[in-house]
């Protein structure tokens, strides 16, 4: 079989996989887990990458990671290296991190600062807006530098969060409404005056959807997350059907204090199946933030915040992020797929930009709860993947009270993939 025939076979196999996936998603019961192949098959994974991660808005990082002109960080979305940079006018931009000469990666470090973007291979040079400035002296006379600038990706910010889309067109899903609300809800934190204190990157041998499913329920928390439950109330949000009256009484008492300080807290959701959700939840009575003993993690509170018992403002963005905003620090989580059965989970902790490590905060104390929780979730996700790979696996039912968040996630996933497949 020659190379042309091999490519045709692969193309046909992928098309068959797309037809199969569409049929599976069309027929699936919404309150059951997915067929095994949607969690472990390489063809199905490629469809996830093409129809979700290369077409939908993805969370990549925070604006305070690149506070000044020329500051950048990089991220890899599957096989797509992407560069996020602050330009000379203060705008955050996203570019495909691949040179327009012969395709080399331009920025090879995870983060840094540059005057211009210079490809290390042949020194082609671009400005911070992606315009080609220098292409050597050996190009022919008809070479047009204006036609060889960096390829940009869609990039939007809201409340200090940076989102990118690698698609040819922006998704038409009311995303700007979410960003506007995020601006309002994040205003008290003054994100531009925060800094990255520490980050962790965890490799997990599990499909990205299993990572998200695990996050979208706390059914497993009591048996697996003792550190987290020192402070966290396991109810998913203020509309959780399991929440008892004493929770609502506690929430109402805290909400009255938040109102006095002008801190937004009411549940906000966007999209038919809550693709994006913002809600402020109180922590356990007598605790301030998610530390081992519930006491402060940093001597400096964020922005204009005065009340240390601010709870946790939970921000969900499907398909790849959940976040906890607290009085003296906040934590953002990012999930990116590697293969059908591998994912990368990145966790970042932010504090006030003037806070001094070792004086105002201790990184071990700051991260201890979520380091433990992430490791516990990694074990759970990998066990889940191993069980799904078994010939004995068949989709099982979700609890509509304990696991309604998982149902919402898979409803969004199913609707998104089906819609994007039909648009071809």
UniProtKB/TrEMBL annotation:
Requisite cofactors: Fe cation
InterPro entries: Rieske_2Fe-2S (IPR017941), Rieske_2Fe-2S_sf (IPR036922), Ring_hydroxy_dOase_asu_C_dom (IPR015879), Rng_hydr_dOase-A (IPR001663)
Pfam families noted in UniProt: Rieske (PF00355), Ring_hydroxyl_A (PF00848)
Keyword Coiled coil in annotation: no
UniProt entry keywords in alphabetical sequence: 2Fe-2S, Iron, Iron-sulfur, Metal-binding, Oxidoreductase
Domain Rieske: 57-164
PANTHER family linked: CHOLINE MONOOXYGENASE, CHLOROPLASTIC
Protein name: (2Fe-2S)-binding protein
């Amino acid at each position: 079989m020659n190379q042309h025939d091999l490519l045709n076979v692969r193309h046909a196999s992928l098309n068959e996989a797309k037809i199969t996936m569409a049929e599976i998603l069309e027929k699936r019961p919404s309150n059951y887990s997915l067929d095994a192949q949607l969690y472990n098959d390489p063809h199905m994974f490629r469809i996830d990458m093409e129809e979700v991660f290369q077409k939908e808005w993805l969370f990549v990082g925070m604006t305070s990671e690149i506070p000044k002109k020329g500051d950048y960080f990089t991220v890899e979305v599957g096989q797509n290296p992407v560069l996020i940079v602050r330009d000379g006018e203060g705008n955050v931009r996203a570019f495909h991190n691949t040179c327009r000469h012969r395709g080399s990666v331009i920025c090879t470090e995870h983060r840094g600062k540059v005057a211009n973007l210079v490809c290390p291979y042949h020194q082609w040079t671009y400005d911070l807006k992606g315009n080609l400035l220098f292409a050597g002296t050996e190009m022919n006379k008809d070479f047009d530098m204006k036609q060889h600038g960096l390829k940009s990706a869609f990039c939007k910010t809201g409340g200090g969060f940076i989102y990118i889309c690698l698609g040819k067109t922006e998704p038409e899903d009311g995303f700007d409404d979410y960003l506007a609300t995020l601006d309002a809800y994040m205003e008290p934190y003054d994100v531009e005056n925060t800094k990255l204190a520490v980050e962790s990157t965890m490799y997990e041998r599990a499909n990205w959807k299993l990572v998200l499913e695990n996050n979208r329920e706390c059914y497993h928390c009591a048996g697996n997350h003792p550190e987290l439950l020192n402070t966290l109330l396991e109810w998913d949000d203020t509309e959780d059907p399991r929440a008892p009256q004493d929770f609502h009484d506690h929430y109402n008492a805290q909400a009255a204090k938040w109102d006095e300080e002008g801190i937004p807290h009411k549940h906000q959701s966007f999209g038919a199946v809550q693709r994006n959700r913002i809600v402020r939840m109180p922590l356990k009575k007598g605790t301030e933030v998610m530390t081992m003993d519930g006491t402060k993690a940093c001597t400096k509170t964020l922005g204009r915040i005065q009340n240390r018992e601010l709870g946790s403002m939970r921000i969900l963005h499907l398909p790849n992020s959940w976040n906890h905003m607290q009085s003296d620090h906040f934590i953002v989580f990012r999930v990116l797929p590697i293969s059908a059965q591998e994912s990368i989970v990145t966790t970042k902790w932010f504090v006030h930009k003037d806070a001094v490590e070792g004086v105002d905060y201790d990184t071990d104390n700051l991260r201890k709860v979520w380091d433990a929780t992430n490791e516990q979730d990694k074990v759970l996700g990998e066990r889940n993947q191993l069980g799904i790979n078994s010939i004995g696996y068949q989709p099982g039912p979700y609890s509509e009270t304990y696991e309604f968040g998982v149902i919402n996630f898979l409803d969004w996933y199913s609707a998104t993939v089906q819609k994007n497949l039909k648009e071809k």
